[in-house]
Amino acid sequence: MKYSSIPLAQSVVQHCKAKGIKNIVISPGSRNAPLIIGFTEDDFFKCFSIVDERSAAFFALGIAQQLRQPVAIVCTSGSALLNYYPAIAEAFYSDIPLVVLSADRPTYKIDVGDGQTIRQDNVFHRHIGYSANLKQDVVHATDSIEKYAPHLISEGNIELTKKKVQAYNDTELNKALNTALNTGLPVHVNIPFEEPLYNTLNETILSSDIRNEDIETIDALKEIEKFAEIWNASTRKMVLVGVNDPNSVAQEFLDVLGNDPSVIVLTETTSNIHHPNFFNSIDSIVAPIEKSNTKEELFSKLQPEVLLTFGGLIVSKKIKAFLRQYRPKHHYHIDRVKAYDTFFSLSHHLKIDVTLFFEIFSKGIKNIKSDYFSYWHTIKQQYELKRAAYIAQIPFSDMLAFYIIHKNIPINNQLQLANSSTIRYTQLFDLNPSLHVFCNRGTSGIDGSTSTAIGAAFYVENPTLLITGDLSFLYDSNGLWNNYIRPDFRIIVINNQGGGIFRILPGQEETTNFETYFETVQNGDLSHLCALYNLDYQEVNDADSLEFILQDFFSNSPSARLLEIKTPRILNNKILLGYFDFISYDF
């Protein structure tokens, strides 16, 4: 086994190993050579090689999303680091523990015109759990330090400085990695190396000071007891669940909520919780009220006295607008680390694990008489019938394509969704409860969906399906540029020749400017990308062909498959907007 001759590189590797950070996604470079040597020479680590840093970071995010463990990304100096930023922001808002290990030039070579050099320290400071800026070794390349930066050597004493530097770096590495482990937030460790970079040793020359720290826990028992009293005294309780890991809440607790006549539970596709009495198409409830002549009265009926939320960010703009206008008296959010005041009514943040909360909470609550659930459940049954009738009469379009896709996805698959139209169409339909659903909702960007899905698929036992739009897919086409795509990986691209979502947003008009700068009409041939990356390619543009192809699309194959579904660009928005008109009802 070989080790980098640079003590700092050895220290970083030792800390990662001691903290159990096994998965290392590496982008090639020279300045990060000491780290590449350290990680790839040790069989403890599973190393991945991905050239494009933006794709590499999202790939790592996908792995961390599934394992709920920190994953390290390693890059060289300069602009390489900046390409991590989209994934870092996503990880920050989605509580996914990425560990950024960026190699850097020595401090005395910053801003002096040295090549591939930028100001790397604290570069993510607004979107990071912790930034550690390590100090350069003085026992490596000592001649360069004495020549260019003698002030780095304390009192001219190399041994004294060595001990100080090692103690400082150990402290910072412990802080950074413990933050990732305990909070689920991304962290950044910036690591300066001086040349030579490729020298190795046959044994390590140091022993790092490794320290573990547990996150502070707050006794929430009294707060839960107080909340239970408020809950039991209220006849209109709403539970709203955002992005949530599959199997994170025991079904017995969900059943308690689902069978309470004073509770309505609103879920999203990414909530990954299920019960026959839950409301899983929020916009299908809210949109018809918006169109009603008595909407104020109806929204007042829907307005909860108590709002309980858990999970991550919410997709539905309509539920956010409603709860901001018709605020609950009490809003409690459950999360061990943070709580967003999304509806400007947050009264309490319960810093506790969701499962532990329900274990305590369920013992102190009782069902009370109320028609809150029964009234809205009747409305739900009405829109479900109307939705089925609408689907039966519409021509081939985005909406019909999504309906056909969702009813044909095999059970127990992992479903990865791109943002924009993809996640919003999916929100309208029922999904099989066996599916595990994910989407990068932290920043809701179209960048990185393919890379995330491929990373997420790597360790998952069952097959993965990515559903994406044409712009999202093309934007992240470098996500296919790696050797880690499983043969059971499936991609469905809804190609409406541009950003179809802009056609349903205010300001849409049939002009050249709109088509060029908003909708961004494109006519790319996806078959060429599939040929380049050895993906089986199929194309359909009508409902019957789609139904037929999906019968075999998910079967075993020697390589991954992509299905391109071409839909009518001009018609899609009219059908979607027509859906909300069609399901509007008389209350």
CATH architecture of the largest domain: 3-Layer(aba) Sandwich
Q: Residue-averaged pLDDT, rounded?
A: 93
Shape: globular
Indicate the radius of gyration in whole angstroms: 26 Å
CATH topology of the largest domain: Rossmann fold
Biggest sheet strand order reads 3-2-4-5-7-6
| Beta strands, count | 19
| Helix content estimate | 25-40%
CATH class of the largest domain: Alpha Beta
Structural class category = alpha/beta
Oligomer: single chain
Reported for the largest beta sheet, the result is: 6 strands, parallel
User: Please, how many helices?
Assistant: 21
Low-confidence stretches: none
Distance between the termini: 73 Å
Give the total of domains: 3
- CATH fourth-tier homologous superfamily of the largest domain: Thiamin diphosphate (ThDP)-binding fold, Pyr/PP domains
Percent of residues in beta strands: 5-15%
Description:
The protein folds into three domains: 3-197, Rossmann fold, CATH 3.40.50; 221-377, Rossmann fold (3-Layer(aba) Sandwich); 394-583, Thiamin diphosphate (ThDP)-binding fold, Pyr/PP domains (Rossmann fold), CATH 3.40.50. Strand 18 (536-540), helix 20 (543-553) and strand 19 form a beta-alpha-beta unit. The strands form four sheets. Strands 3-2-4-5-7-6 form a six-stranded parallel sheet, with helices on both faces. The longest helix has 26 residues, at 158-183. It is globular and about 85 Å long. The termini are far apart. The protein is built from 21 helices and 19 strands. Helix content is 38%, strand content 15%. With 587 residues, the chain is of the alpha/beta class. The mean pLDDT is 93. The protein has helices at 7-18, 33-40, 53-67, 85-94, 142-148, 158-183, 221-232, 251-258, 282-290, 295-302, 317-325, 354-361, 372-393, 398-408, 421-426, 449-458, 470-475, 512-518, 526-532, 543-553, 572-583; strands at residues 3-4, 23-26, 46-49, 71-75, 98-104, 130-133, 187-192, 200-201, 237-241, 263-267, 306-310, 330-334, 348-350, 414-417, 436-439, 464-469, 490-495, 536-540, 561-566.
